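Exercise (ungraded).
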Amino acid sequence: MRSFLRPRVLVAALATLTLAGCGFSGTQTQAVQPTAVADTSQRIVVDNFRAPVANWAVESDAAYILSLSGCLETLTTFNQAEGKVLPSLATEWKQTSPLDWDFSIRQGVKFQDGKDLTAESVVSALNHVLDAKVPARAFNRTMISSITAVDAQTVRVSTPAENPLVPYRLASVNTGILAPAAYKPEGLDPFGHCTGPFTPVSEKAKQSLTLDRNENYWGGEVQLAGAEIRFITNGATRAAQVQTGEADISLSIPVASLAALKAADGVSVLGADSPRTATMYMNNGRAPLDNVDIRKAIREALDLDALAASVYEGAALPATGPFAPSEPWAGDKQDQQVQDLEEARKLLAGAGYTADRPLEIIAIVERAEFADVAAVVQENLKTIGIPVTITSKEYASAEPDVLAGNYDMLLSQRNRLIDIADPIGFLTADYTCKGTYNLSHFCDPEYDRIIAEAAKTLDTGERYKLYAAAGQILQDQAVNAWLVNEQATDATRTNVLGYVQDPLSRYVLTAKTAKAAS
Amino acid sequence: MLQFITKRTATLVAAVLVSSFAVFLIPYFTPGDPVRKIIRSRVAGDAIDDSAVQGLSESLGLDDPLAVQYFRWLADFFSGDMGLSFVSRTPVAEQVLPALSVTLSLVLMSLGLAAALSLPLGIISGLRPGSTADKAITAITQALIAMPEYWVAPVLVLVFALKLSILPTAGWNDLSSAVLPALTLALRPISFFTSAVRAGIIDAAAAEHVPAARARGLSQGQAILRHVVPNGLVPLSTLFAVWFAGLLGGSVIVEVIFAVPGMGRLLFDAVVNSDIPLAQGGVVVVVALAVGVTTLADFVHRFLSRTVGGTLA
């Protein structure tokens, strides 16, 4: 038996920075000081958790950095609070045929190099993304067949099959529009080629990106003189920098640093549901977990409250199913799983379970906490007579066996909205019979039918109902054990004004982001 | 001398070949598909389309036989081209050289600091072995060995950045931002350097020529300065080179914690992401530099030995 809380060397060491703290804010919008006034001569420092690795290729995750820094803009944006796709570089859009969507390009917008934003420049930019050798998840040739300019102000996006989610796809940061001069043979050059409120002026490789205010921004007066985006991959360092005031905004604060930041003067801690659920994947295609009652017994045996309180130190909430309760497609039946050992034992007995061999849980090492989660699950399952062994592996080394169905259980987590602000990609890849990432080896024709219908449903409300129905099937079949919903946590200095937290860190600096004189 | 240079050149070529081949094989002999690792380094997320894997594999030449891939790299390398990074598609040299310059600065600062502190400590300790000062210095320097960098670094941040607010927590901007990473890296060398200097001083002080020098009319201080202290420098030169070579690519933890864009992080990321050309280019540069520095240290060691020996004679 492993110890309940195995020493996590690096995390424990970094936790020496941790001090005492108070409660979680639970808000997405930073509390504004009533007397604070924006000082437009101020510059801001943002600590980001990732560095660009792909030479600013817009189809890569570097697009997130260009977007959060207020440089890169897309035809549409997704407003998390409203749960809606909103206009950005496109003012309106409509489905003109089952396979075509027309987007009206905003007039009067200039790139930072002075060139006009036109339908042609948009077509050129989007085709660049489609032609990438490593295509973007959200926008590639499997779902987009062509991009054409209908006239000087209209861009047509055509799809190989009816696709109601094209406006969502064009909110993906990977579909950001840059001036034609940005696309060079040696790579993408975003400097002076964006449309956003900030223009990048210099870069320190692997360290930071410096931006100045775009004086000609189409979206109104920019409240900051400039910004520096620092690439700080170590979470404790990001936390320390916002605590000392070296950074004004630090993204993705680790659990170990929360208490210190909540206790610190001049710092606000913001939290929001993230679209990530820590999940214990179960192999539905191999005995004994091909038996739904055994899977249900495992689910009933888990003490999720204890898990959230201990391993996650309260910074994650017990899961209620495959979705976070706050997601609009979560459905009405969002009861929290309560440990019921009696019921678990009954289910096991009914299924004729015999502990012929211990079941293996693979805990991926990329998430340090999963070793502790595995230890808790091991203890829970032991109480109902299921012996469990734990193996720690890099995800890359576990993946071939998991995809081939040679495993029992795997602790991992997925971002449901990693491509677009709609879970269709996740629900298709992870749970349909032909899903490309169906780790659970689950297959249910009724589930597939619902997802296929959802993929064609234009009405957002109706589509969400279908997702809820699909989620209910996953829940009824106990396909996996969903453990905790993770929280996205950012920290800001209290003199930062107008900061609205985005759990996916796509939008951080906007024209409205401001700073009061300190 | 010629024989020495020839031998060292052969060592250098052999080291480059062996290290570049070993690094080249890492992605193929560690679990997981190298192409998927490259893709994941560009776009986070687990689900990867098989057609993307196939397309990238072809475009990078990763479906060629391993021997073809390696000799292609080798031919390019010896014609002065380190190739393009698989992940960023930018020239490897453009990434390696800036990172190397950062690491060289950091390592030289660390070892300079270590030498500056350990020399007086080792001399004090070695001149009075068994004294209270010697015991205290030995205890402290031995304790430094046991302090891992991932513990020392956050403690230094806590004290100097968070509590005293006199140094930045991280970054690589000016001299002040280099202090904490350099100090963290210096702690263990201080311990080893001090031990070596102490041992050299004790040996030299016990040698017959010190009383002989006193008999020739030199004061105790003059005898120590002329005949004892130089002996402390001899082992230091070798240790300096060994630590220099080790820290060139081995300061990953410090570079991550302090957000220093050096070689350690570059090489670590390259290996994790299966960025074979970047890893090969980086390792080869580090190995070549390490061989060069140890060769130089040998020269210095010989020179000091002769000089000191001459003095002693």
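Further reading is listed at the end of the chapter. For now, observe: Residues 71 and 77 of chain B are 9 Å apart (CA to CA). DSSP finds 13 helices and no strands in chain B.
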